[in-house]
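worker-3 :: picked C2H2-type domain-containing protein
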Amino acid sequence: MGPQRLRKTRNRTRDLDQISTDILQPRRLQQHLSTLPLEDLPALGQHYCTPCAKFLETPHALAHHQRSKTHKKRVKLLKEPAYSHEEANAAVGRGTDNGVFRVNPEDVINRIARDRVLAKQTASTKESMSVDMDVEHTDAPQLVETPPVDVEEDL
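worker-3 :: tokens ->
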């Protein structure tokens, strides 16, 4: 089997993404099968292996095919998710910035200055919050009244 024979379109089978679409959407499979002439198919197209996109002669041949190594490999390949266009473009290098990332020094200086101002503001708010917690509010009602305790001083 030479390389020229493999390139011929009459030997072309369905691709994995087409087969996975057939499995997920049975309507697409029926649409594909309706375009094929039944007279030319083995056993008039009754025995079809969807993962392999292959017509077989008898139910015994279909059962034997489903136990075969090639069928199991194809099923294993179909369990993996298909590549998306974004993944394919990223693999080729399209759509990503492969150039050198340049930083504007003024942006860095402005960011550092802004961070310092924010740090000072947060520090001052924390200090004011701690001062507010030290102050007792005498106007607030007490939930439990404590009786005065006489403390004797031992000298």
